[in-house]
Design a protein that fits this description.
- Helix 4 (58-67) packs parallel to helix 5 (85-96).
- A hairpin with a 4-residue loop joins strand 1 and strand 2.
- The protein is an alpha/beta fold and 269 residues long.
- The longest helix is centred in the middle third of the chain and has 12 residues, at 85-96.
- It is globular, with a radius of gyration of 19 Å.
- It has 7 helices and 13 strands.
- The strands form 3 sheets. Strands 1-2-3-4-7-8-9-11-13 form a 9-stranded mixed β-sheet.
- The chain has a domain at 4-151.
- InterPro entries: LRR_dom_sf (IPR032675).
- This is Leucine-rich repeat domain-containing protein.
């Protein structure tokens, strides 16, 4: 998958030699900022024609260099494991949306965390508070056409906090969430008509607060008419307003499911 855009300023091998991007012959691409090449990254960013003055923008430059090239239109699987996501989440989404992604069926998007809502550490060692983006979010997907650029999306894995305005897809069948993905603190999309399998991993946050169980009231048959498998085995809920199974029965979702794992149960296979 040679990038004509990159090759005008540098051999594509220079981008791959950085080690942050890994590509294979099946149409899969994985990005995770490589620590071993950090000392040489400024030179690469300059070669790619970008301003190197802000090191926390370098991750975004590397992502854009590959994903904005038309040669990546054939990608089938894409994983973006972000570090400087206060910049790169939005810029990565914009890069995805610049090229038709008619073959992309699987997307992993987000960042690692130990404690939900804890201050994040950037590639330079600085800190930022993700809660500063509550309601604003990081991806700005309602403005950059991310979901519209993914007409074949079937599998989505999201990790992190307050990333998206919403998750909008009429084709998505499998969703895995670790954290709280939506900018208003919600767990699940407004609607996902084709979704069949949902796995939530929602730990107690950095303040020692568990997720309110009433968030599960959003899981209704009208919003998720095809949902059959629900895995909550790795969730910590505050059940002061009701038990998980009670909420699911009240919404009518319990009767629709064919497989359910409650908190503390073995995970669904």
């Amino acid at each position: 998958m040679v990038s004509s855009k990159v090759s005008r300023v540098s051999d594509v091998q220079a981008l791959l030699a950085d080690g942050s991007w890994r590509l294979d012959d099946t149409g899969a691409a994985v990005f995770r900022l490589a620590p071993d090449s950090a000392a040489r990254r400024r030179e690469l960013v300059e070669q790619l024609g970008a301003d190197p003055s802000d090191a926390e923008q370098w991750e975004s430059v590397l992502i854009e260099a590959l994903l904005t090239d038309p040669a990546t239109a054939g990608l089938r699987e894409l994983e973006l494991h972000l570090t400087d996501y206060h910049h790169s989440a939005r810029r990565a989404a914009e890069a995805i949306a610049t090229v038709p992604r008619d073959r992309l069926t699987s997307l992993t998007f987000g960042h690692d965390f130990t404690y939900l809502y804890a201050p994040a550490t950037t590639s330079t060692g600085a800190k930022f508070d993700p809660l500063d983006r509550l309601h604003e979010g990081f991806v700005h997907d309602s403005r950059n056409g991310l979901w519209e650029a993914l007409p074949a999306l079937r599998t989505l894995t999201v990790g992190g906090a307050l990333l998206f305005d919403d998750i909008r897809s009429d084709t998505l069948t499998s969703l895995t969430v670790r954290g709280v993905p939506l900018s208003d603190g919600s767990l699940v999309p407004t609607a996902a008509p084709a979704l069949e399998s949902l796995r939530l991993d929602v730990p107690t946050d950095v303040f020692g607060v568990a997720c309110p169980v009433l968030q599960l009231e959003e899981l209704t048959p009208s919003r998720f008419p095809r949902l059959r498998r629900l895995d909550l085995s790795r969730c910590d809920f505050d059940t002061s307003d009701g038990e998980v199974d009670e909420i699911l029965r009240a919404t009518g979702m319990a009767g629709q499911l064919t497989a359910l794992a409650l908190p503390g149960d073995p995970a669904l296979r």
